Amino acid sequence: MKHRMKRKLISFLLLFVMLFQALPLSASAATTVKISPDIEYQTFRGFGTSLSWWANHVGTWNSTAKKNEILDLLYDADKGLGLTVARYNIGGGDDPSHHHMRTGADIPGFLSADGTFDPNADAGQRSILQGAMRRGVNLVEGFAKTPPYFMTISGCASGNVNGSSNCNPDYYDDYANYLADVYELYRDTYGITFDSISPINEPNGPWWEINNRQEGCHYSHAEQNALFKTFKQVFNSRGLSNVTLAGPEGFEYNATLGSLGDYDSEALGAIGKINTHSYYGNERLFLHTIAECSGKRVSVSEYGVGVGDHNHQAVDSALELAHKIRDDVHDLQPETWVYWQAVEEEFDVNNWGFIHADFNGAETYEITKQYYGMANFSKFIRPGATIIGANNSDMLAAFDKNTHKLTVVVINSGNGNKDYTLDLSGFSSLGGSAKVYRTSDSESLAQLGDIGINGKSLSITAAPRSITTYVIDSAYSNASPRFDQNATYRIVNKENNNMVVDILGGSPDNSANVVLHSKNSARSQQWKLIANDNGEYYLANVNAAKMLDVPGASKENCATMKLWQANGDSNQLWRVTDLGNGYFSIINKNSGKALGVQNGKIADNTYLDQYDFNSYDNQEWKFEVVY
């Protein structure tokens, strides 16, 4: 009897569970994300790829048809990714008796040891470059990984013993003249003007060893410093002062920052564009601040990914790529973003590259899922678009004021759906619907049905393990940024308009004291306002390239202000509120307290502190444009 009752109870419980599972689960509330055309970041110049090593090999394929197919897949805006940036590898050329380079990595040099310059060298890579330019590439950078082998210490283009320094200092001038010769060759003979020249590549890396499988050269910080100064002097002497030198090409953000931090003012002045690789690190805001305060362009010049087993259809690499693009383009604000090798050797990689090609046999290739993940960005965020605010770290938004297209890319690396409501109220008018393109485990840039826009609001669902691009036509906005990101400001106190925010003694160091001082022309009195997606600001000192900071994230009244390198913490963020009288309050996000003058003492070198906002004149400020 007891057993029968137990069986009935179990049957009842099973029926209850089945009925419960059959009921629809209540949907979790959608996350609202504000798309803000009034928060403008950089004007984007395009996505691209390096041509080494693949172009050296594919450029010599016998099948013109196959070569053109790959060119179309990468550079044609309609048929392919629409890449518009190319990095042309100026080869050093290795000792002819050496045979240790991987397929494609033996980039021919133009100069031989006897001084003969061959203008016809490197025909394979050049043919790919020319084909890419016919399809829309309009920005070409010439970059070198090593000087010619006979200018090295080891006599080998792949590096030195134990990865030590390898460029012979006696040949710095010769190396600079070599790259200048190649620049002039391409300009005058082939009609291709390099936008910039980058003479070093991952110089801090200890992996550039003799008889390695690729070109490379280690430089100490002191050697980098000397080399850039030499390059600038040589280029100037040859009438090439207009040529932008790029560097230092650290393999991660910290490596790039470390190099820049050790250069003297002359070497820093020689560099017109900061190039970094983005394999590791999160110091994007720090590097962006340095670029902004020094007035230099900045680019991500290399990143590649290939997680997981060798599987053309695996979406994992595409998802990792998407997150890297989003974080780099949004947080660093580079003008261009360049992938390492768009085409990889099928039998020598895991999942690196957008296309896997047979470099050693039949001239065949396969398209990987990573290709389509790239397409979610490059086909829709086009040169000339402005990256704008989207307060969600899984989204990147771009607004093209010329074509009136709004593009939002949404990444979902999770295993469940994510619901969002895109707040588009910042736009004055919009088209009636959004086009949708998705890449996932089962989809490769599949175009889905359009989604209607309801009252300047777009409700979307990001599918599991997907990258989805939403494109809205006929987007217009009358909004403009509150502060010009390209402008430099003085922060002027209301109580005395001749008194401004300054740094004690003009110090550029961490923990330097922030003070009030009489207005003058010093760079320590000049500031950049760097917005975030929520309309808050970092206040960056132009002289120091460091932030106005509440030390120790103090929330106490009377805590005095310091400088500190950018770290993205809330004690470096400020809410700048228009008071309607021509002045602003500057309230720290972390403490909720206002920037003011300690004890209200209006005099040179009085410390600035934070205090409850009481509308005192010494707590009100205006922003005066310097330039």
Description:
The protein has 627 residues and is α/β, with parallel strands linked by helices. The chain has a 9-stranded mixed sheet. Strands 8-7-6-5-4-3-2-9 form an 8-stranded parallel sheet. The chain is globular and about 75 Å long. The protein has 11 helices and 32 strands. The chain folds into 3 domains: 31-40 and 388-472, Sandwich (Immunoglobulin-like), CATH 2.60.40.1180; 45-380, TIM Barrel (Alpha-Beta Barrel), CATH 3.20.20.80; 489-625, Trefoil (Acidic Fibroblast Growth Factor, subunit A) (Trefoil), CATH 2.80.10.50. Helix content is 22%, strand content 28%. Helix 5 crosses helix 6 (221-237).
3D shape: globular
List the total number of helices: 11
From the 3D coordinates, which CATH architecture of the largest domain would you assign? Alpha-Beta Barrel
Query: Class of the largest domain, according to the CATH hierarchy?
Result: Alpha Beta
Q: What is the SS-derived class?
A: alpha/beta
Q: In order across it, which strands form the biggest sheet? A: 18-17-20-15-14-13-1-16-19
Residue fraction in strands: 25-35%
The count of domains is 3
Helix content: 10-25%
- Count all strands and give the number: 32
Oligomeric state of the chains present here: single chain
Span of the ends, CA to CA: 92 Å
Q: Which runs of at least 5 residues are low in confidence (pLDDT < 50)?
A: 1-27
Task: Summarize, please.
The protein is of the alpha/beta class and 627 residues long.
